[in-house]
Amino acid sequence: MLLLRRLAIYFFSLAALFCFYLILIKSGDIFYWALSLVVILALVHILVVGSYKAKKGSLIFLSQSVFFVGTSVSFLILLENYNLKIFLIFSIALALFFYWLLLLNFFHWPNEYQPFSLADFGHYLLLISWFFLNTAVFALIIFLNLSFWLAALLLAFLFLIIQAWEFWLQKKSIQNVWRFLLTGSVIFLELAMVLSVLPISYFVKGFLAVLSAYLWLELISLEKGQNWSQKVFFKKVIFSLFMIIIVLSTSRWF
């Protein structure tokens, strides 16, 4: 039975790749193919997780994969280079494949599961999804004249959920970090408002947003964990500042 589940993951990964390709070549029917992706995600979740009664909280994993796919579709629409789109859909399908395999090992093959591998992989999926989402929202401000106040509030609220997701994956009590979650949302609200008015590409804005989110999540994780290292965090801050300087100095300012 477990072997069949593993084989099914291969099949559904190819099915997801096919749906993404149909979104690429038949953009007029994007709603139907996106809905097909959601159905695939739900089927894989049922297949991988199994009995829900024994897997309390497993819907968090489903919501994370739906969030990843939804933001990926929104980002895919923004891309203009065809080769880059092809690379992206292959990367997304591959990420889903490894994510599903990790879930299968986590729930059914604990001997093959590497400790914290699912939390680490989920962490990076959240960051990638956050980049896709921010890029799409900042693009809406330009293309649809979306109010930057509304966009900033939306992103701040979603960042609250992202933080809660992150700490749930790390098996940390939300009650112990809720002050950090609210503080992070307020900080990101101000950051989103600043980024909204900067005359730079929405791709650059999305990158700056995810880099800021990465630093904040790292700060909370280190502070609330047992392995707090000021030196480690300082290195990450230096690297992030270096990346910000490089990106801003090489970006086109309108």
TrEMBL record:
Transmembrane segments: 7-24, 30-52, 59-79, 85-109, 121-142, 148-165, 177-196, 202-220, 232-251
Superkingdom of the source species: Bacteria
The keyword Membrane is assigned to this record: yes
Signal sequence interval, chain numbering: none
UniProt entry keywords in alphabetical sequence: Membrane, Transmembrane, Transmembrane helix
Protein name: DUF2339 domain-containing protein
Species the sequence originates in: Candidatus Kuenenbacteria bacterium CG10_big_fil_rev_8_21_14_0_10_36_11
Upper lineage: Bacteria, Candidatus Kueneniibacteriota
